[in-house]
Specification:
The protein has helices spanning 22-37, 44-48, 89-108, 111-136, 144-157, and strands at residues 7-12, 41-43, 55-62, 65-71, 77-84, 140-142. By secondary structure, it is of the alpha+beta class. The strands form two sheets. A four-stranded mixed β-sheet has the order 1-3-4-5, covered by helices on one side. Strands 2-6 form a two-stranded antiparallel ribbon. A hairpin with a 5-residue loop joins strand 4 and strand 5. The longest helix has 26 residues, at 111-136.
Amino acid sequence: MADDQRISHISLDEETIIWRNADVEQERRVAIFDLIEENCFKPVRSAARGASGPYRLSLSVHEGRLVMDIRSEDDELLETLLIGLARFRRPIREYFAICDSYYQAIRKATPTEIETIDMARRGIHDHAAELLLERLEGKVETDFATARRLFTLICVLHIKG
């Protein structure tokens, strides 16, 4: 069933995350909530072997790579994907910088200034989602909105304090 080609549960390696402030914690909660509510996720190799979703996804970062453990609903490991993160370093750094500006602006800037910063933030986020779609090609069939939310979670995994 096409409806089953989705993520039903997502977890982040909490050991990877050293610190996060209230703004980042809110971004994480919203990204996970939105992702579970609506996503498209089909691990190509697992599906070819007959596996069907929904899937449980666990994300972590190990030695500069994104580790995606994909499991069945009954927690059987279906496959582990490793995605190199070198090409994401700059978008992650830019996203952190623009988010910091955005959070500061919310507290004291004019609506026009906030809108300008938010447009830049969305642009960086969109570019990173496109990059993630490229990196997942042939591994996971997904859509832009899902990739965008996954990029938010990849950023959360990179917070070092």
